[in-house]
Amino acid sequence: MASSFKELFSYKSFCIFWCVRFLGISAYQILTVAVAWQLYDITSSALDLGLFGLFQFLPALIFALPAGQAVDRYNRVHIVTLCLIGQAGVGACLYLTTAQDFISRDIIFLMALFLGLTRSFQMPAQQSLTPSLVPRKILQNAVAFSSTGMHTAIIVGPAIGGFLYFLGPDVVYLICTALIFSSVVLTFFIMYQHKKVTTKMRVNELFAGINFIWRNKTLLGAISLDLFAVLLGGATALLPIYAKDILNVGPEGLGILRAAPALGALICALFIAQWPMKTKVGKKLFSAVGVFGISMLVFGISTSFILSVVALVIAGAADSFSVVIRMTLIQLETPDTMRGRVSSVNAIFIGASNELGEFESGATAELFGPVGSIVLGSIGTILVVLFWAKIFPNLLNREKL
């Protein structure tokens, strides 16, 4: 692992970019934990927890294709910088409205919309940057190392957010704003060779990413597998309910539950960085998603806090394993001139699986209760794995990345 990381550390812009993502993701995780607990305190509604995810997803769906074209035409670092500035504005607004006791359900949903707008441009820009900062030969290591940073942030962020909530949500939002501002400053030190595009924008270019993925059945299978697996099996939106009403562990317990999947993901990413996948990547991908579904089924029926945490750790490790395979496939099989548009389509799928998945969880929890929602979703994930293995045999039998 040391030799792999040492080579990555020699690329300064990649290291700075890693720090930018770590601070930004940490702040986002801290913020979402605080917002989720505050929103549930205000409304006591599972549906509202799901709507918070839906309002983040809608801008991503609307602006994803224009965002992809922008990422392929303009400086990707500048796009990331502007998005982070917008997120700092969200944190500041939440701080001011909470400190002035003006916060409401509608304000939170409005902030979710703006947060979704910034992330619709940020995600494809970030995904497209990594291959421009490191050589192709160490891209899998770079993806795995980036994953370690992302998941470390997802561990640290919710834990900090849960414990800091005792000081008040306004304090949490102020800290988030400071962290995001720090990441903005660091973006000015990222250097990469931006290839200026002089041709005029064309409407048909908006759909180039969709067409590329549709023609590449390996990418289509990998991205859609993740979409439906996480869309059905995810449980992030319902964690406040589990923490407060089922496991009785309070906001600090919520922070631990939010951090648990990232702990498993971090362990997995470190493992992959040391021992990159070389053979049977297709079967490993499907196995990982299957393990994710089984782990979430265990979490759904558990009434033990320890068992719930263990199940989430395993689910996070399995999800990370599939993410590294999927992201490496996307970067290796996509030409640089198309990476923004392809990454934007991937961002739609990620948003659909995460934010739209939160809405799905909240809506089904209103009908079947939180336990019924997660159990049914987990069974659905397992069925998706079996069905996708039949309709995407080339992906299942893929030997190497």
How helical, in percent, are the residues?
over 70%
Secondary structure class reads mainly alpha
Mean pLDDT: 80
Instruction: Count the beta strands.
Output: 0
Amount of beta strand: under 5%
Q: How does the overall form come out from the CA principal axes?
A: globular
Q: Unreliable segments (pLDDT under 50, ≥5 consecutive)?
A: none
User: What is the CA–CA distance across the termini?
Assistant: 20 Å
Number of helices: 15
Radius of gyration: 20 Å
Describe the biggest sheet? none
What is the string of SSEs from the N terminus onward? HHHHHHHHHHHHHHH
Structure description:
There is one protein chain. The protein has 401 residues and is mainly alpha-helical. 83% of the residues lie in helices and 0% in strands. The chain has helices spanning 2-9, 12-43, 46-73, 76-99, 105-133, 139-164, 169-187, 208-215, 217-233, 239-246, 250-274, 281-301, 305-333, 339-391, 393-396. The chain starts with a helix and ends in a 5-residue tail after the last helix. The model has no long low-confidence stretch (mean pLDDT 80). It is globular and about 50 Å long. The longest helix has 53 residues, at 339-391.
